Amino acid sequence: MSRIVYLNGEYLPEEEAQVSIFDRGFVMGDAVYEVTSVLGGKLLEFEGHMTRLERSLRELEMVCEISREEWLAIHRELLKRNELVDGGIYLQVTRGNAGDRDFHYPPAGTPPTVVLYTQSKPGLANDPKAEKGIRVISVPDLRWHRRDIKTVQLLYASMAKMAAEKAGKEDAWFVEDGFVTEGSSNNCYIVKDGKIITRQLSNDILHGITRASVLKMAAEAQMEVVERPFTIAEAQAADEAFYTSASAFVMPIVEVDGVELGTGKPGPVSKRLREIYLEESAKTAI
Ligand code: PDD
């Protein structure tokens, strides 16, 4: 069955949704995005994702005059029309149709291109990978330096995922100046002697919405959190590791560059945080 997607004010069957070959998103990767998870037909962390979207737009001087209420109405309409239970909603805003290829931004007033669609993932919260834990390799972080802006320029992240797949592992961690920045599409953490260690916020990493919530929940559960960079060697000597993202929540990591962590099974802190996150985020889902 074809999905109903949203494009520039219209709800259309996916086959009918078309964007210009001159769209800045297509030609220049000039676009920002958000992924909001859906569990039981409800949106998780909606406000957080919209706040970050507004920030990404602002940082790139992109104008998109859609209010929070309108964003919510579009998300809800897509959930309804596609009868989505578990999965997510992908949202993308580009700088619009420039009329031709040009490095300069199109004139002020050029309307942005706005696309949203649902992605169904039945049983998303019960991903068997979370039971087993995943394995990561490290790769140099060769991305641009404004990783705090959620742009669609994801080619290097995609290359990193392919490198992990070729190595027979599930994901990749980026390393810069000897320290882990983040995962290919997630924020990462190690646990040592009960302390949760994760890189502090800066332009070096995406300010994960899941990260913010998980750190708050960890503190509320009396867990100690230290925000500082860590190395691969430290990760390999850690008791546990995990990553967070909107689409995977809290995902235990059991191996880093071929070295098994702790018992080689998801650790208690990762497992507990996953439970807490799923429980608590369901309470604020809308
Ligand atoms: N990725 N870091 C990077 C580089 C990411 O791409 C993501 C999210 C995160 C986690 O952010 P959040 O908790 O807000 O999802 C960190 C999304 C899920 C994606 O690209 O599909």
From TrEMBL:
Keywords, alphabetical: Amino-acid biosynthesis, Aminotransferase, Branched-chain amino acid biosynthesis, Pyridoxal phosphate, Transferase
Ranges annotated as spanning the membrane: none
Co-factor(s): pyridoxal 5'-phosphate
Catalytic activity, EC: 2.6.1.42
One annotated Gene Ontology cellular component of this protein: cytosol
DNA repair in keyword set: no
Catalytic reactions of this protein: L-leucine + 2-oxoglutarate = 4-methyl-2-oxopentanoate + L-glutamate; L-valine + 2-oxoglutarate = 3-methyl-2-oxobutanoate + L-glutamate; L-isoleucine + 2-oxoglutarate = (S)-3-methyl-2-oxopentanoate + L-glutamate
Enzyme category, top tier: transferase
One GO MF term: branched-chain-amino-acid transaminase activity
GO BP, one annotated term: branched-chain amino acid biosynthetic process
Pathway: Amino-acid biosynthesis; L-valine biosynthesis; L-valine from pyruvate: step 4/4; Amino-acid biosynthesis; L-isoleucine biosynthesis; L-isoleucine from 2-oxobutanoate: step 4/4; Amino-acid biosynthesis; L-leucine biosynthesis; L-leucine from 3-methyl-2-oxobutanoate: step 4/4
Pfam family, one: Aminotran_4
Highest taxon of the lineage: Bacteria
Family, per entry: Belongs to the class-IV pyridoxal-phosphate-dependent aminotransferase family.
Function: Acts on leucine, isoleucine and valine.
Name of the protein described by the UniProt record: Probable branched-chain-amino-acid aminotransferase
The species this protein was found in: Rhodobacter xanthinilyticus
